[in-house]
Amino acid sequence: MSACPQRQDAGSGRLRLGEPMARHTSWRVGGPAERFYRPADQQDLLHFLRHFAIPPVAWVGMGSNLLVRDGGIRGTVVCLANTLDTLECRSDGLVLAGAGVSAVKLAHFLAKHGLAGGEFLAGIPGTLGGCLAMNAGAHGGDTWGLVEWVDLLFPDGRLERRERAYFQVGYRSVLGQEDACFVAAGLRLQQGDPLEVMARLRAWQERRAATQPLEWPSCGSVFRNPPADHAARLIEAAGLKGLRMGDAEISQQHANFIINRNQARAAEIEALVSEVQQAVQMRFGVWLETEMRIMGEAADV
């Protein structure tokens, strides 16, 4: 697979061939995407999917919950970060949000409008689309607790609106999306005092900065918390803090973070994930499920 980016015209968006995915993941690792497209808007995206996309089609946002293997991704990667990011607060209280808007930006928008319940989004380093796909949450709140409906875009260009009740939603789990991408959502929140909402938001951001290794590339929390426990506690109790494979390291500050110390490869991160799972399973009889997605192919040895 070519690693030399080339631009091609395929609408008003930008299509690049052989685009390094390390530029588009928060871990700063990943081989090239065969075709990488960033649409100008939703209509441009529809046009691209109907006329130019080569399957399989993979959807990404800010790449904050994603490990792309060193061999890269076949087919077409569509990136919604920095596009499809509109926000509107309607007179009936419903918030219309594009899937490409960052969770942090959405949290501040809600707080400024005195809408309570979305403050936890300020601690999630991804897009609304990614939050919807995995039911991201923090501080006792989760994304789908805010959802009234979503718009889905399928790889064939078909657009469909589905109500919240259509989906089976659980802890870091959503069923009903099929092979489609979330492109927008209608969110319903409770009215609150703007100053109090903003104070809670800022307090949670400060706590995140104090407890997480934000100075190093990472994907955020790697593992889901098992029932009635915390993945970080189990990893630390297994004596795994600071364990390294190449430049991939289990953070000394927060054991549920794997950081890229310099020039880590995706294979090293994936091997470290496997080592943690096996060690915790052997010590405590608990298999840690990952929160992040793994995409692409291993590099040729």
If you had to describe this structure to a student in words, what would you say it looks like?
This protein has helices at 42-51, 103-112, 128-134, 194-211, 231-237, 266-284; strands at residues 6-8, 14-20, 32-38, 57-60, 66-68, 73-79, 87-89, 94-98, 115-116, 137-138, 141-142, 147-153, 159-163, 168-170, 173-175, 181-188, 190-191, 244-245, 248-250, 258-260, 293-295. The protein is α+β, with helices and mostly antiparallel strands. The chain has six helices and 21 strands. A hairpin with a 5-residue loop joins strand 12 (147-153) and strand 13. Strands 1-2-3-6-4 form a five-stranded mixed β-sheet, with no helix packed on it. The longest helix is centred in the C-terminal third of the chain and has 19 residues, at 266-284. Helix 2 runs antiparallel to helix 4.
